[in-house]
Amino acid sequence: MRHTALVGALGWAAMTVGSLAGCAPTTYDASRATVEVAPTSTTIPTGTTPELLQRLTTESSALSGVMIAAGDASAAVRSIDAVWEVVRDDVQQQRPDLIEEFDANVAKLSDAVQFRRAADADKAAKNIDALVSALAS
Q: Which parts of 1-137 fold into alpha helices (H)?
């Protein structure tokens, strides 16, 4: 019986200490206030499907260089995404079997920029180039 009472008392003490530890005062650091960012606009790419696919390949291949040179890789990815968005339906109609691979590799370009991995951007760009070649054949 004593053992049960001791365990109960220890449990109650642990719970009390744990709940009091969570009652630390909250402070606000004004220097860490968020900054509002103005929305950016993207021009809708125009051109024929072959022209846009060539642009997709060219911009994808250049992305790792932009990243290495500390350029605006986010803007480059937005441009690539915009080109892909315009040409995606045509690719879907021509070769629906390739659409998942295109989508995955365009997404990998965004991930490469987010995680600062230029080698991943190069790999995705090579895959996109191969997919564009497969689409043309």
A: 2-21, 49-68, 73-94, 99-114, 118-136
What local confidence, expressed as pLDDT, does residue 137 receive? 85
Q: At what angle do helices 118-136 and 99-114 cross, to 10 degrees?
A: 160
d(CA 109, CA 76): 10
Quick check: 63 and 81 in contact, CB under 8 A? no
Q: Please say whether the dihedral angle defined by the alpha carbons of residues 41, 107, 72 and 61, taken in this order, is positive or negative.
A: negative
In this structure, what DSSP letter does residue 57 have? H
- Compute the distance between CA of residue 68 and CA of residue 95 in angstroms, rounded to an integer: 34
- Residue 132 tokens read as 């564009």
Longest dimension (CA), the chain: 85
The pair phi, psi for residue 35, each rounded to 5°, is -110, 130
User: Residue 131 CB: number of other CB atoms within 10 A?
Assistant: 22
Give average pLDDT by consecutive 10-residue segment, the chain, 137 residues.
54 53 52 46 84 97 96 96 97 96 97 96 97 93
Q: What pLDDT sits at residue 69?
A: 95
